[in-house]
Design goal:
154 residues, two-stranded antiparallel sheet, mainly beta, 2 domains, 0% helix
Length: 154
């Protein structure tokens, strides 16, 4: 990178009109983000994995996260309403939404069958491949509480 990037908004900013060009890449510390549009028909929760929707370039959804090959990134900082624009984490540490199970460090994770951007513990019977996400602190979801940490490099 030749010089420091300058942006008028935080990586936590979510807007209903684009503030930069879709597909813009930015760095915040060691984290890498890409600017995207929520093309789904629902809120994408903070901590959800997303995939490209195919509607337009850099449009994302969590309702199609069903296979390891289509994980595009994760919503790290704040939930995104339908039609919002915001920054999707591509590389860095974050908390990911786990299904009703704990995923411990070293365990393999896979997209949840609930089609909601959550991940679950990988088992051979799941019929899916494990994600390329390194769990570094136990991920668990109990009610609204989400704990743990994972490292993405997508």
């Amino acid at each position: 990178m030749l010089g420091a990037q300058v942006f008028k908004e935080s990586v936590s900013a979510v807007t209903n009109t684009p503030s930069v060009e879709l597909g813009t890449v930015r760095y915040d510390g060691e984290d890498k983000y890409i600017y995207c549009y929520n093309a789904s028909n629902s809120v994408i929760e903070q901590g959800a994995c997303v995939t490209l929707s195919g509607v337009t370039g850099y449009s994302v959804t969590c309702s199609l996260v069903t296979d390891v090959g289509n994980i595009f990134g994760a919503v790290k900082n704040v939930s995104m309403d339908t039609g919002d624009y915001g920054w999707i984490l591509k590389k860095g540490f974050t908390v990911l939404l786990a299904s009703n199970t704990s995923i411990t460090p070293g365990a393999l994770a896979t997209p949840d069958d609930g089609l909601n951007g959550r991940i679950s513990l990988f088992t051979l019977s799941s019929g899916q491949l494990p994600l390329d996400i390194q769990v570094v602190q136990t991920l668990s979801t109990t009610g609204c509480a989400v704990t743990g940490a994972a490292y993405l490099d997508l």
